[in-house]
Amino acid sequence: MPFYHRLGDMPQKRHVQFRKPDGKLYREEVMGLEGFSGLQSILYHHFLPPRVLRVESLGPAQPEYADFGPLRHRAFGTKDIPSGGDAVSAKRVLLGNSDVTLGVSRPTDSMDYFYRNAQSYEVWFTHEGSGVLHTQFGKLPFRAGDYIVIPYGTTWKMDLEEKEARFFVIESATQIETPSHWRNKHGQMNEHAPYTERDFRVPEELEMHTERGEFQVRVKARNQISLHVLDHHPFDVVGWDGYLYPWIFNIHDYEPITGMLHKPPPSHLTFRGWNFVICSFVPRQFDYHPEAIPTPYNHSNVNSDEVLYYCDGNFMSRKGIGKYDITLHPSGLPHGPQPGATEASIGKKRTDELAVMVDTFRPLDVAVPALELEKNEYMNSWMEGDGE
Ligand SMILES: [Fe+2]
């Protein structure tokens, strides 16, 4: 996160003696990216951080991909994917490459173990539901519309407040960050950015536990899950400060950039990782030129695959696509509004659509669980009418 935050207790200087009330030392941990050169935070633990009672392998955690077949536009309906389990165990990867995977999760249960993804940044876009993400950095209450961004190595546990939740989950091999052109040279958000620092929610309440016992942490690293059983509660942090911590941005806080004529997807840019971007399509006014065409023009995303997760509202340019659907418009062929959609959009003043888009700069593979969700008729949806 590009701003400094601190929570709890810590000494005035780093790397000095910091003692508990009983005189024993708190244990300092520097947690950072890029070998002490990237974002980092310093945490003060009650227990020694490397202490693990026992370790065990829980098996591989790599998506299985299917043969793509002939190049075509594809769509997947996730409305009726089975619900159940906790957020992590309910997650199904549907699309992916070595930069990023995209999936959905429809949990009904809170987690009864802790989880740490040591190989990816995770973005949990909360389509439906609410709850609390508990982390060693503190609590993050979340609600519908929240992008919950969790850096590598964060230990967390998600509690749900409703019977069911639904997430679109982005797992990134690289850091998730705000686009640099929306920040000044000091890192502050620029005045023309579609959000400001005020829109980010950060941990405000620490949960410091000193209980002993057996605590399960499932760790994802090297494309497998390891079970680490600790002899102490993993949330034993009395204080921390720095730039590396989980945070939340709500899609409804995105201030859409609109204009006289159609604005392309970079105007919806929200976050980026290496080789992909995340964009937010939110309710907004349409273009105000008297002869404007509000729907997008046909476009060839020549070197990127485009994925849209449809959340809410009416998607004017898409026929046969509804809430919870995912479309994949791969590089190599043009796409655009279905027959009649362009004409129908003329004169419209605003849209209530809500969608999350991920554009990847390398092709995405389709994971095996996506095949049974596929809407095979999607490619034919441009074939109605006489083609003019
Ligand atoms: Fe597109």
Provide keyphrases for this structure.
mainly beta, 2 helices, 7-stranded mixed beta sheet, Jelly Rolls, 388 residues, binds fe (ii) ion, globular
CATH class division of the domain at 256-382: Mainly Beta
Bound molecules: fe (ii) ion
Number of DSSP helices? 2
Radius of gyration: 22 Å
Helix/strand order: EEEEEEEEEEEEEEEEEEEEEEEEHEEEH
The number of E-state strands comes to: 27
Q: Which parts are unreliable, with pLDDT below 50 for 5 consecutive residues or more?
A: none
The biggest beta sheet is recorded as: 8 strands, antiparallel
**CATH fourth-tier homologous superfamily of the domain at 256-382:** Jelly Rolls
- Overall form: globular
Second rung of CATH, namely the architecture of the domain at 256-382: Sandwich
Sheet/helix structural class: mainly beta
Instruction: Report, as a whole number of angstroms, the end-to-end distance.
Output: 48 Å
Average pLDDT confidence is 96
CATH fold group of the domain at 256-382: Jelly Rolls
